[in-house]
Amino acid sequence: MPDTSLRAQCCGILLGLFSLLVMPVVAQEHPLPEEGDFTIQAFAFDDGSVLDLTQHYTTIGTPQRDAEGRVNNAVLIMHGTTGSGSGFFSENFAGVLFGPGQLLDASRFFIILPDAIGHGQSSKPSDGLRATFPRYTYGDMVRAQYELLTEHLQVDHLRLVTGTSMGGMMSWVYGYTYPDFMDALLPLASLPVEIAGRNRMTRKMMIDAVTQDPAWQEGNYEEQPPGLKAAMYALVFMVSSPLQYQQMAPTRETSETLMDDLVERYRSRIDANDLIYAFDASRFYNPAPHLDKITAPLIAINSADDQVNPPELGILERETARIPGARAIVLPITEMTRGHGTHSRPSIWGPYLAGLLAATSVEVVPGPDMDLLVNPQDPAWDSIAPDHYRARFTTTEGAFTVQVERAWAPHGADRFYQLVKNGFYNGVHINRVVPGFIAQFGLSPEPRVTAAWKSAVITDDPVQAGNTPGRIAFAMTGPDTRSTQVYINLGDNSRLDADGFSPFGEVVEGMDVVNRLYGLYGENAGGGMRGGRQGLIEAGGADYLLEQYPLLDYIISAEIEVLAGPGSGLAL
């Protein structure tokens, strides 16, 4: 049974600035991670100190090189304050990004997760130097990681630089310090200006709570000073999510229990010296004077319920506008956002990452034959489907596979086969997602294609397989009106059987992906076919959906896999 206690619930909240939680390990669906250490001899810090510095790192996947010998698939992901690279191995992050068919599929990308100076298993004050450890800065962190990448891992170029919170701020620093080193930048939960106002005040509260405690003893304590607990009170509110906290703790008793639990959880997982160093490392951070040096395409994403970077400041939009072509995104508050910790929820912001990767790709991917797509009368649309086949869909949320049984609904199976085989669904938004009901798609991103297919209908099939969870059928508005739109049942919709909705297959892999498809727009992003709310999508296509409903997931590609041999079919 899932753990529904306050202790379990709070695990999902504070994955932001403060990343001390022991994250659940995601089910292994990507290559095995490899860990290592690189020691930089006599590393020179900004404060003038010199130290043999250890940089710990984790990698997933294998670097690939282009014809000129340059690495072309490396992705750098940087963690938040007090976190580590291993913190990304959560179901919410790695489970959504690193697996087969996902946006940062580790069989295609070389993913690098370093522990920053002062964090994880890299050199830090608590290793022995305590308060005599060099007073490192974000600039030191970035330079050390650059040496790790170029000197040790032999990575001479990055496909993508991204990071959460502190890692997001370091993404900005990478962008202007090494402007030709990456293809794209995706800073998450950060602002490209000096740490000031309430942000700096809260950091100083935490630092002062430790350093003004007599038990700190100038960093030479034998036991963690009580001031460390006081620092946690400020931290809890710094990265809080008012909506989530209210839902999790709607009474005085539950609120106090949640607070005590969070404070104790964090206090027990951090060293006082490491804490004050980590939060003070941002003291000289200020990309604003250097933004004109950033040349890589950039999308900066924050959340409107982020208490660290509140939207009313208007800073993200103002400063990002100074970079040609860059975009600033502030996600609206929803039941899916988690305040500052929204940065660790790629299920929400994945479509933006997909768009950035597509816009900066150097791969030449042949598009569908538009002449064919606008001509439903072409003989290519008359092909008969195999008795059993699979269609694999790669989406912005991950991949899922549909197995089709022609015997269930021959006309539907044939039409679906033709549409997938000829590239009709590539780029199609999954525009109608109603949790517990259906996920529907099939309106072309090109209005002229949608118009051409509006009357290209097929004859109905009798219902032989019921509308149970995971099964897929064509949408319709009445007898013999099935065209290109299909839906996947997200719940038991057996009541649809009597209305003639005839499933032709079912999802056999990736139903978890289907259940994660963005559904908070509900019927607003396309509505029901009978509701008459699809006219704007038909007229505007993908451009309209991207502008009005930017968080919708969409299909990157779909392809056919033919099954052969006895026993390859599904049972009714």
UniProtKB/TrEMBL annotation:
Coiled coil spans: none
One GO biological process term: methionine biosynthetic process
Gene3D superfamilies noted in UniProt: alpha/beta hydrolase, Cyclophilin-like
Pfam families for this protein: Abhydrolase_1, Pro_isomerase
Matches recorded under InterPro entries: AB_hydrolase_1, AB_hydrolase_fold, Cyclophilin-like_dom_sf, Cyclophilin-type_PPIase_dom, HAT_MetX-like
GO molecular function: homoserine O-acetyltransferase activity; peptidyl-prolyl cis-trans isomerase activity
PPIase cyclophilin-type domain boundaries: 398-517
PANTHER family per the UniProt record, alphabetical: HOMOSERINE O-ACETYLTRANSFERASE
The protein's name: Homoserine acetyltransferase
Lineage: Bacteria, Pseudomonadati, Pseudomonadota, Gammaproteobacteria, Cellvibrionales
